[in-house]
Amino acid sequence: MKLPDLKTARVRNQQIVKYYEADILRNENLFKGKKYFLKTYGCQMNVHDSELIKNLVEGLGFIEVDKMEGSDLVILNTCAIRENAHDKVFGFLGRCKHEKEINKNMIVCLCGCMAQEPSVCEEILSKHKYIDLVFGTHNIHELPNMLLNKMSKTDIEVESKEGDVIEGLSYTRDSKIEAWVNIMYGCDKFCTYCIVPYTRGKQRSRKSSYILDEVLKLKNDGYKEVTLLGQNVNAYGKDIEDELSFSELLRKVSQTGIERIRFVTSHPWDFEDSLIEVIAECDNIMPYIHLPLQSGSSRILKLMGRRYTKEEYIALFNKIKSRIPSASLTTDIIVGFPGETEEDFLETLEVVNACKYDSAFTFIFSPRVGTPAEKLPDDVPLKVKEERLHRLNEVINKYSLEANERYIGKTVKVLINGISEKGNNKVCGYTETMKLVNVEGSKDLIGQIVDVEITEAKSFSLNGVAK
Ligand code: SAH
Ligand code: SF4
Ligand code: F3S
């Protein structure tokens, strides 16, 4: 049993290792017919990791079920970004503990970003002994072996080092229409509030040849859309000698001819002019850019280690909008960073009023163990933080609705990806600008890019009719 030690980050080598063990185990079918329940928290990175986990456990013979109760294997793929993410996981673990009292052979696994936190592992070892297996974000591919070697007591296998980029893994993808493609792992930015560089390790880009092969294969398999994934996609390639830049990679991905290309997330600091050009020039690169602001106060941005000022951010925003007028831009904002004054917050509102985002994710600052911001003196009462979040959301929602209302009467292209939650004879999908549209039309449209006339706008979605 090993306890993780996050302080021993080693100098990485970019060696590619092939992984075979799952294939060997697959032939043995050791867990044939056993039931597994997988719950995923957090960002797209985790959603995509879960597609890998599915492939591995299904390869062993497990069958997915939609209820934890009564299953043989429970896997929680966790997120550590804010305190409430932790709380949700421990809440669910309480249910697992209860179930295990009845269903004694059930295997409970915790993985994902929380597993990379030493304090969480210590807590599990001391207080949550019903958890059988803990594995980190760098050793998912070892899951089949870990399940086979599972000991009767809690087994913690968390790689403290980020390891190599592993190629040749297979995914059981949730969709047959839209696919995630990792282009890099980890993050080197170390924003002072953020835990991701600790849970995901240093930035490791995948070699472009592997990425392009994967996109081509997806296209040949009938996929209509790929989303290139990374914490910092526009820093792609900067960690490998002689690799393409992100804009060069995007151009090559565009040349594969896949119908739609998206990417998340880009950091304002690495947003070069060549990237704006390639998005403007290539029709299959979608005009949708998520450009996290975090704060509108240059003073707070400096404390956050974001490497741009309010003025630089607004200038970049305007440059993108003037070159790609159709683009929709969204953002992330944190309120209540330690020491944030009312003046700082008003500057955030000022930037929101200048940029009029299509939508935004907003958060109250949550101190994360081991990050520099955790140690900053914080004199802003929670009540004030909550009130700022409320004021911010009101402004954001107003602009979201206004942005959506501009679509009324227009005909837009929607990639239909499923049945609408709005029920009766409705399907749904996304516009090029990433607006969710509920469409009156038959389910035969699923998988097609359809012209849809927009008839109604809400804050978070549009309604329309297929033409
Ligand atoms: N790599 C991406 C975002 C990763 S996390 C980027 O840099 O944009 C997603 C969002 O969670 C961040 O953009 C930030 O707004 C928010 N976030 C991260 N750490 C946080 C913390 N400690 N407290 C509150 N929000 C946080
Ligand atoms: Fe976190 Fe900053 Fe990296 Fe985004 S860029 S993952 S916010 S450290
Ligand atoms: Fe959460 Fe890890 Fe993503 S902390 S936001 S799941 S990278």
Note the topology.
Blueprint lengths: L15 E3 L2 H8 L6 E6 L3 H16 L3 E2 L8 E6 L4 H20 L4 E6 L5 H10 L5 E3 L7 H7 L5 E3 L7 E3 L10 E5 L1 E2 L10 H5 L3 E2 L2 H13 L4 E5 L16 H10 L4 E5 L8 H9 L6 E3 L7 H7 L5 H14 L4 E8 L6 H14 L3 E6 L17 H24 L5 E9 L6 E6 L4 E5 L8 E9 L4 E5 L1
Parallel strand pairs: 1-8, 2-3, 2-4, 4-5, 5-6, 6-7, 9-12, 12-13, 14-15, 15-16, 19-21
Antiparallel strand pairs: 10-11, 17-18, 17-20, 18-19, 20-21
Helix pairs in contact: 8-9, 11-12, 12-13
The protein binds S-adenosyl-L-homocysteine, iron/sulfur cluster (SF4) and FE3-S4 cluster.
The site of iron/sulfur cluster has 10 residues, from helix 6.
Poorly predicted runs are: 1-24
- How helical, in percent, are the residues? 25-40%
Tell me the distance between the termini: 60 Å
Count of runs of 4 or more consecutive helical residues? 13
Short note summarizing the structure:
It is built from 13 helices and 21 strands. The protein is α/β, with parallel strands linked by helices and 467 residues long. Strand 6, helix 5 and strand 7 form a beta-alpha-beta unit.
Description:
- The chain is 34% helix and 22% strand.
- With 467 residues, it is an alpha/beta fold.
- Among the domains are: 6-152, Rossmann fold (3-Layer(aba) Sandwich), CATH 3.40.50; 175-286, Transcription Regulator spoIIAA; 411-466, OB fold (Dihydrolipoamide Acetyltransferase, E2P).
- The strands form six sheets. Strands 3-2-4-5-6-7 form a six-stranded parallel β-sheet, sandwiched between helices. It has a five-stranded mixed β-barrel with strand order 17-18-19-21-20.
- α11 (310-323) packs parallel to α12 (342-355).
- The radius of gyration is 23 Å and the shape is globular.
- The chain starts with 15 loop residues before the first strand and ends with a strand.
- The site of FE3-S4 cluster has 13 residues, from α2 and α6.
